[in-house]
């Protein structure tokens, strides 16, 4: 971390280090001679235009952005709000592997050829990104402090359960207290990103 006027540190900045790794789908991510990580590619940055703000792609928020959430992976569906004409979808920052939080600020960055299918769901309004895969539903919040990101994510999941899965809102709130799961996307960007999820089996939805 680089010291700034508001991030006061006693220690000097860490030295810069460049690490090259061999990445293949078959062989995984060769971190070193003794450590090989599984190849788990995902899109670090994906979003639509915000409504009126001027933003840069590093900033995650209600429109998506640089969320660095490993669940934005092959065979997942991400739902993004449309805030401007044409949506203006953008994506990039693809990773071959990353732990929760993207601790030092970079994952295993690698170039990709990414194929996505884009569909417009008419007459369906969401305020924050959502994600679905074979096993769970997830809502995604970004903010600072980290508690705010968690509150956003869980609030949106409560609303999703109430609106589309026949749960009374307070019952959904109590249910998620018992079985909700939180996934940490990034904790190094201007805002932190967390995903709150629930197993499809618990909602009664088909997997």
Explain what the structure shows:
The structure is a single chain. With 207 residues, the chain is of the alpha+beta class. It has a single domain, classed as Endonuclease I-creI, CATH 3.10.28.20. Helices cover 16% and strands 24% of the residues. It has three helices and eleven strands. The strands form three sheets. It has a five-stranded antiparallel sheet with strand order 6-8-9-11-10. Strands 1-2-3 form a three-stranded antiparallel sheet, with no helix packed on it. Helix 1 (146-164) packs across helix 2. The longest helix is centred in the C-terminal third of the chain and has 19 residues, at 146-164. It is globular, with a radius of gyration of 18 Å. It starts with 21 loop residues before the first strand and ends with a helix. The mean pLDDT is 94.
Major β-sheet profile: 5 strands, antiparallel
**Oligomeric composition of the shown chains:** single chain
What structural class do helix, strand and pairing data support? Answer: alpha+beta
- Reading off the top of the CATH hierarchy, the class is best stated as Alpha Beta
Radius of gyration, in angstroms, nearest whole number: 18 Å
Strand order of the largest sheet: 6-8-9-11-10
Poorly predicted sequence stretches spanning 5 or more consecutive residues: none
CATH fold descriptor = Endonuclease I-creI
* Measured distance between first and last alpha carbons: 41 Å
Looking at this structure, what is the CATH superfamily? Acetamidase/Formamidase-like domains
Give me the count of strands: 11
The fraction of residues assigned to DSSP E strands is 15-25%
The CATH architecture would be Roll
Order of helices and strands: EEEEEEEEEHHEEH
């Amino acid at each position: 971390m680089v010291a700034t006027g508001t991030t006061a540190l006693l220690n000097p900045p860490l030295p810069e280090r460049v690490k090259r790794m061999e990445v293949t789908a078959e062989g995984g991510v060769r971190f070193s001679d003794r450590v090989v990580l599984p190849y788990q590619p995902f899109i670090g940055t994906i979003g639509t235009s915000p409504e009126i703000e001027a933003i840069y792609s590093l900033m995650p928020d209600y429109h998506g952005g640089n969320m660095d959430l490993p669940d934005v992976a092959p065979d997942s569906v991400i739902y993004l709000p449309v805030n401007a004409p044409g949506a203006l979808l953008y994506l990039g920052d693809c990773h071959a592997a990353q732990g929760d939080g993207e601790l030092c600020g970079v994952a295993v960055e690698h170039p990709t050829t990414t194929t996505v299918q884009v569909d417009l769901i008419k007459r369906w309004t969401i305020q924050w990104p959502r994600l679905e895969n074979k096993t769970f539903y997830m809502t995604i919040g970004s903010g600072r402090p980290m508690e705010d990101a968690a509150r956003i994510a869980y609030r949106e999941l409560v609303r999703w359960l109430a609106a589309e899965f026949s749960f009374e809102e307070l019952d959904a709130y109590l249910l998620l207290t018992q079985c909700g799961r939180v996934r940490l996307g990034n904790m190094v960007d201007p805002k932190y990103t967390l995903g709150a999820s629930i197993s499809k089996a618990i909602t009664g939805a088909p997997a």
